[in-house]
Design a protein that fits this description.
Two copies of one chain form a homodimer. The first copy, chain A, is mainly alpha-helical. The first copy, chain A, has nine helices and three strands. In chain A, a hairpin with a 4-residue loop joins β2 and β3 (about 80). The two termini of chain A are about 15 Å apart. Mean pLDDT of chain A is about 85; it is low at about 1-5. The interface of A and B includes residues 69, 70, 99, 157 and 165 of A. Chain A binds a DNA duplex through α3.
DNA sequence: ACTATAATACTTGTATACAAGTATACTCGT
DNA sequence: ACGAGTATACTTGTATACAAGTATTATAGT
C-alpha cells in the first residue's frame, strides 16, 4: 500500500509502546530521509491520513514533530518537504560536535566512572550486533552511545537539543548502516576504534584524545553521507521500476 | 477569570495572527516562568480547556510545545510543571553562549555588512523603546537582536536550536524587563553598551571584543535572574493576598 | 480496624464533525 | 480569444465524541 517492496522503513520493534502519531512520525521521517518522499513534495493531512488509515489527529502530531526537526515546513496550505541534503547532514553533525565538546568539558569536572561503565556496556552490545550482522541494532546502540554521553551531565537544555536532533540522526545512521553493513567491515572496525577512543578520552579525561575522536567522527560522517546518497539513488531507482 | 489582577501576561499585540494553540502556549509559558503556576503542579488538558474556554485540541498543541521547551513533562496522567529554576536559566544561557560563539566563528568568514546594518537598526529601536519606557518592546527587540545574529548564518540546525530556546528566553527577558525597567536605568545603559559591543565585534570581526561582550552578557543574566526571583516573589505574594 | 475488590470519575489518544479560509477551475460576458 | 467573477473542491484550525486505560474512592468481607 505505502510501498510495495518495503512497507515499513522504521523498525517496528522500536515502536512497541509508541502512539500512532509517533509511529507515523518515525515512518514519515524515514521516508523523507531515505528520499522515498522527495524534497519539495507537498504533504496534505487528509491524504496522509487516508494513506496511513488513521485520522488527522495523529497525522497533525507527526507533522508538528517533523516540522520541529526541520524535515518539513508547515505552510498555510500543506506541509512542504525540506528533506536532508548534504548541507543539513553537515549541520546536524556541527551540532553534535558542538554539544559533545561542551559535554566533555563538563564531564571532566566530575567522576566519569559510571558513564564509562555504561559506555563500555554499549560498546560490547555493538560488537555483538556486528557479530550477528544486525545493522538496526548496531545503529540503535551507536545512537545510544552518544545519547549516554550527552545525558550524563544532566543539562536540561543540552538534553533538549539532543532530543530534537536525535530522531533525524538515528534515521540517518539507520539507513546508512543498512546500506553498507554487510560489505564494509573495515568501516565498522574504524567506527568501533573510534568509540573505543571516546571511552578512553572520557575515562582518562584527556582532551587531546577527545579532539582526536571527534575528528575521526567527521571522517565517519563523510562515509555515511556517501552511503545515504547511494541509498537514495537505489530507492529512487526502485521507485522508477515500480512505476513501469 | 484566569487571574483577577492580570488577565494576560503575554502581550496580546504580539499574537495578532497566532492560532489559539499558540496563544495558550504563550500564556501558559508566561504563567509558568513567572511562577504563577508553581513547579510540580499537574496540569490536565480538560481543566485547561475549561479554564481557557477552548477545546482540548489547542491545549494539546500548547502542551506539546511547552514540553519541547522543557517547561513541563508530559506524563501518563497529566502534565507536570517543571518550571524555570536558576539552574535552568543558567543552562539556557549556556546554550546561547554556545551557539553565539559558533555563529561568530561562521560570521567572520563572510561579509557582515548586512547583518551589522540590521543590528544597528534594532539597536536604535531599543533606544526608542527606552525613551518611551516600553519594557515589552525593549524585550522584543533585545530578543530580535540575538535572533538576527543567529539566523544570519543560515544554519538550519542552529536556527532550530534557537527556535526551541527562544520562547523561554523571550518570556524570561520580558518578565525581567517589566520588573526593573523603570528603576534601573544603569542596567539598561549597560545592556545597551553591551549590544554596541556585539555590533563592534561583528563589524570588526574581532574575536577579543566578541568574547568580552559574551562575558558581559553573563553579568546581565545574573541581574535578570535576580529580577525573575523578585518577580516570582511578588506574584506569589499577590496570589496570597488574592486568596484572603 | 483493615484489606481486597469493585465502581466511579478522571486521564489521554484517536476519530469525526464543522467552520473559515484559499487556490483552482469553470463559466459567462465582452 | 480572453478577462472578471463565481462556484467548487480543497486546505487547515477547532470543537466534539468516543474508547481504552488508570487512579481513586467506596464498599463489602473478615
Amino acid at each position: 500500500m505505502l510501498n510495495d517492496t518495503n512497507d515499513f522503513l522504521y523498525p517496528e520493534k522500536w515502536l512497541s509502546k509508541a502512539s500512532t502519531g509517533e509511529r507515523v512520525a518515525c515512518e514519515l521521517r524515514m521516508r523523507i530521509i531515505s528520499g522515498l518522499i522527495e524534497s519539495g513534495t507537498t504533504l496534505s493531512e487528509n491524504k496522509l491520513a487516508a494513506e496511513y488509515n488513521v485520522s488527522r489527529s495523529p497525522i497533525r502530531e507527526a507533522l508538528k514533530v517533523l516540522s520541529n526537526e526541520n524535515l518539513i515546513r508547515l505552510e498555510r496550505m500543506g506541509a512542504v518537504v525540506v528533506g536532508l541534503t548534504e548541507k543539513e547532514i553537515e549541520e546536524i553533525y556541527d551540532v553534535r560536535l558542538l554539544i559533545e565538546t561542551f559535554v566533555f568539558e563538563r564531564l571532566v569536572k566530575n567522576d566519569t566512572a559510571q558513564v564509562v561503565r555504561e559506555l563500555t556496556k554499549i560498546f560490547e552490545m555493538m560488537q555483538i550486533a556486528i557479530k550477528y550482522k544486525d545493522a538496526d541494532e548496531f545503529a540503535l546502540q551507536d545512537v545510544l552511545f552518544h545519547e549516554t554521553i550527552i545525558r550524563s551531565i544532566n543539562h536540561s537544555y543540552i538534553t533538549m537539543i539532543w532530543n530534537n536532533t536525535k530522531p533525524v540522526m538515528e534515521s540517518f545512521i539507520l539507513l546508512s548502516m543498512r546500506m553498507h553493513f554487510n560489505e564494509k567491515y573495515d568501516d565498522l572496525s574504524r567506527i568501533m576504534k573510534n568509540h573505543e577512543l571516546y571511552i578512553d578520552a572520557i575515562s582518562s579525561k584527556n582532551r587531546e584524545i577527545m579532539i582526536q575522536s571527534l575528528h575521526q567522527n567527521f571522517d565517519d560522517v563523510q562515509g555515511k553521507v556517501d552511503d545515504l546518497w547511494m541509498s537514495q539513488q537505489m530507492l529512487s531507482k526502485a521507485r522508477e521500476q515500480e512505476k513501469e
